[in-house]
Amino acid sequence: MAKVILITGASSGIGRDAALRLAGQGHKVYAAARRMDKLEELASEKQGNIFPLALDITDEASIEAAVQAVIQKEGRIDVLVNNAGFGYFGPIETVPIEEARKQLDVNIFGLASLTKKVLPYMRQNGGGRIINISSIAGRMTVPFGGWYNISKYAVEAFSDALRMEVKPFGIKVSIIEPGGIKTAWGGIAADHLEESAAGSAYEERAGRFARIIRKGYGGNLLSPASRIAKAISRATNARRPKLRYKTGTGSHIGILFHAILPTRWWDAIICKFLA
Ligand code: NDP
Questions:
Q1: Catalytic residue numbers?
Q2: What global pTM score does this model have?
């Protein structure tokens, strides 16, 4: 049966690919982001199945308006895909707290606020699905990834608590944990890393890590966005969706090593290779 899906961060990368895939399966996809020109372009690829929706996930009024727009047209939201996010990489000492707040505003508080606004409609409707895009960075930590790691660890804890709370209402919560995925994400994270470390005691190590990120995201070793779009599709369509989907370059091995290695070993290995 065709589902009404609201997906954030649909103007680029994983969200864009997932919107196209889900619309191709016959679902009605409300594709949300700030860049409307990108969304209009996306909608023109699957006319009648993708509907652009203006959304700034850091703005309460914008979140409310986006949810109401879908409810007024469809009367329900069956699936919410919380995908919008970015990586503010940088040394903890030099990243301004204001910037750290922005990281959390987008990656966790925005996600939480949208979820809170959608939940009453899902309960009224007798069920629904919430799919939260976390990261390998929600299960393992790297130097200069601090605020991004904090935001994604928060997505993990938020999703785990929510899943237990909403189960009696027929609402299923899945977490997607992508490894390295070739999107605009890498360039944005590397830019922030270089800018925030410039002129500081961390500049050299941060610069090395930024170069590694750029090389990785510019090369062919990372997984395509379609890998995560497939996982989102499974979480949307499976009768019994998994609670966690680990997929994409390095996700299984990274999470496993972080879980089993003594912390001192993890620190030493990661710093040797990254910073
Ligand atoms: P992209 O940079 O390609 O896409 C990010 C999306 O988030 C854009 O559509 C952007 O839309 C949206 N976004 C950013 N800020 C806001 C905001 N304030 N309000 C609304 N939307 C916003 O990156 P990805 O596709 O790779 O990222 C998607 C998700 O996957 C993110 O949560 C990311 O953390 C996660 N992830 C990515 C990995 C990777 O290696 N690429 C690995 C693990 C997780 P716009 O600017 O138009 O608003």
A1: 148
A2: 0.98
